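Example record for the data management plan.
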Amino acid sequence: MKYETVDQYHEALDDIYRQVCDTLRAEINRHLPNAENKIWHAHPVWFLDGNPIVGYSRLKNCVRLLFWSGQSFRAPGLEKEGTFKAAEKRYTSPAEINKDDLERWLTEARTVQWDYKNLVKKKGKLERLDVS
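Corresponding structural encoding:
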């Protein structure tokens, strides 16, 4: 199904997963107030200067929170995802969300970034951004 807004995405979720996504959305918006939020590749994603930072998606039995540069974070608790620098955390209920951990990850996400925005232009070469 194609969603045009994050609200539409949330409305289509089962109650427990909507609660997880509502909690994640509120915390992401609180800690990344200047980030652009939109549906990207069918899921809610937040961007800083056009670069994807964090997003989540409903999987078969959980909600996956994904940080595009998460493998480079110092704060523990994320699992490697994919072949680039992304890392994830999976949730099956809102009670599993540790807001202190989430705040640490979101704080790092502001300054620890890899240049996903230009990945295609650079023919798959991922470079670290100097974001201070």
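Summary line stored alongside the record: The longest strand covers residues 51-58.
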